[in-house]
Amino acid sequence: MRTRRNLQVSAVAVAVAVALGSAPADGIAAEDELQELQEVTVTGSRIRRNGFDAPNPIPVVDAAQMERLAQVNVAEVLVTLPMNIARQSETNAGVFPTADVGSNFANLRGMNPVAGTRTLTLVDGRRFVPTSDGGAVDLNVIPSALIGRIETVTGGASAAYGSDAVGGVVNVILDRNFTGVKAQYDVSRTFRGDGNEKHLSFGAGSSFGGGRGHALIGAEYQDNDGIGDCAEVRTWCAQGYDIYTNNGLVDEDATPQRTSPDGAPNPRNRRYLGQPNYIIGPGSRQAYNVSSGAIRNLPPTAPVTAVPELYDKRFNDDGTGILDMDPGKYVSNLGIFPRMGGDGDSTYADSALRVPLKRYSLYTRGSWQFTDALEGVAELTYAGRKVAVSQQIAGPRSSMWILHDNAFLPQEVRDLMPPGSGFSLGKDVDETYSGINRSKADTVRALVGLNGRLPGSWSWDAYYQYGRNKRDQTYSHTRVNHFFQWAVDAVDEGEFNGGAPNGNIQCRAVLQGIVEAAGCVPLNLFGLHNITPEAMDYAYDSAPEFFRYSQHVVAATVSGNLSQGFGAGPISAAVGVEYRGEDGDVSHGDIPYYNQLAFTFGQDYGGKIDVIEGFAEVNVPLLAGQAWAKRL
Question: What is the pTM of this model?
Answer without folding.
Answer: 0.83
